[in-house]
Design brief:
This protein is 37% helix and 15% strand. By secondary structure, the protein is of the alpha/beta class. The protein has three domains: 8-30 and 226-314, 4-hydroxy-3-methylbut-2-enyl diphosphate reductase, catalytic domain (Cobalt-precorrin-4 Transmethylase, domain 1, 3-Layer(aba) Sandwich); 31-115, Rossmann fold; 117-221, 4-hydroxy-3-methylbut-2-enyl diphosphate reductase, catalytic domain (Cobalt-precorrin-4 Transmethylase, domain 1, 3-Layer(aba) Sandwich). Bound molecules: iron/sulfur cluster (SF4).
């Protein structure tokens, strides 16, 4: 459940000097990842092995566990077929339309576990392109979700960018001079769902200043998903509430939203570390710490969070009272 109100009962009744772990109100598995895992595991249980194209989620521990249940990633449809799979799956991050074509050509069944919040961005990208906008996808060019959005946009007038220097333009509309390249008249931005809203706003305010002069039209669609925003907001609340000395953001190395959480923590002035496993915790980080704040990305399973809390307990940090978090199975984020 998305809960904006801090729950005092989850804090240990301890003195100010006792070392302790505090956890964000929202952390770990998001709705879209839980849904994708349910779809793929259900299908594998009923119909036999499935090869998701790429990692089902960006978490190596979960990928390993799924392998034992007949869900094993492949780099491409051809590779899956070569390894004897008759079913392939699209992961929560989504894929471009080419994947369905490849699956049909190879005569393999396709299971789609794309998060509906990613599907929304893909459809929006198509619509904006049809409306004549040059599409900028604010995000990591290498990330499967960003690639899928650009794939569905289906045009050469779409690019991924994280900063103004990534854009093919370097001037405001109407600005003349040698080497100056101004944007087209209509530019729209959508965001990778797991980005940081403050950074998106900074990027788009710079870009809109380039597009709007001389009758230009700029459109921003904030497609950062609610679970991502909630995890970032929960971390901000944790820092405000609990006098946190160090933050551990737990998640796979490739997890974009976990990296964002560590960035948010650092931006709040608290030393923050992105770790994948408990054995990555360095004693030096904790030497001066009384309160360690814990958060986790949207693809981090609860047991990995528990392992980190247990590793901190062996270093003398009291675990959070009431466990790591409550989960509302009926929660569905706003589309
Ligand atoms: S982070 Fe957001 S968009 Fe991505 S899977 Fe989770 S809910 Fe869906």
């Amino acid at each position: 459940m998305v809960t904006a109100t801090p729950d005092a009962s989850r804090l240990a009744p301890i003195s100010q000097t006792q070392r302790r772990v505090v956890v964000a109100d929202e952390l770990g598995y998001c709705w879209g990842v839980r849904r994708a895992l349910d779809i793929v595991q259900d299908a594998a249980g009923k119909t036999g092995p499935i090869a998701p194209i790429g990692d089902v989620i960006h978490n190596p521990q979960v990928v390993e566990r799924l392998r034992a249940r007949g869900v094993e990633g492949a780099g491409s449809v051809d590779e899956a077929v070569g390894r004897g799979f008759h079913r392939v799956a699209i992961t929560a991050h989504g894929m471009g339309p080419h994947l369905a074509e490849q699956a049909a050509a190879a005569n393999v069944e396709l299971i789609d576990s794309t998060c509906p919040l990613v599907t929304k961005v893909q459809r929006l990208a198509q619509k904006l392109v049809r409306q004549g906008y040059f599409l900028v996808v604010y995000g990591d060019a290498y990330h499967p979700e960003v690639k899928s959005v650009i794939g569905w946009a289906g045009t050469s007038k779409a690019i991924a960018a994280k900063k103004v220097a990534d854009l093919p333009w370097n001037a405001r509309r109407g600005e003349a001079g040698e080497g100056k390249v101004a944007p087209p008249r209509k530019v729209a931005v959508v965001s990778q769902t797991t980005k940081n809203v403050d950074e998106l706003m900074k990027f788009t305010s710079e870009l809109s200043a380039m597009v709007v002069p001389e009758g230009g039209e700029f459109r921003l669609c904030n497609t950062i998903c609610e679970p991502t925003s909630e995890r970032q907001n929960a971390l901000k609340r944790l820092v405000e509430r609990d006098n946190v000395d160090v933050i551990l953001a737990i998640g796979g190395r490739k997890s974009s939203n976990t990296a964002r959480l560590a960035e948010v923590g650092n931006a709040l002035g608290v030393a923050s570390y992105h770790i994948e496993r408990p054995d990555e915790i360095e004693d030096a980080w904790l030497e001066q710490a009384t309160t360690v704040g814990v958060t986790a990305g949207a693809s981090t399973p609860d047991d990995v969070i528990e392992e980190v809390v247990a590793a901190l307990a062996t270093r003398g940090f009291a675990p959070p009272v009431g466990g790591i978090r409550p989960v509302d199975p009926d929660y569905v984020p706003a589309y």
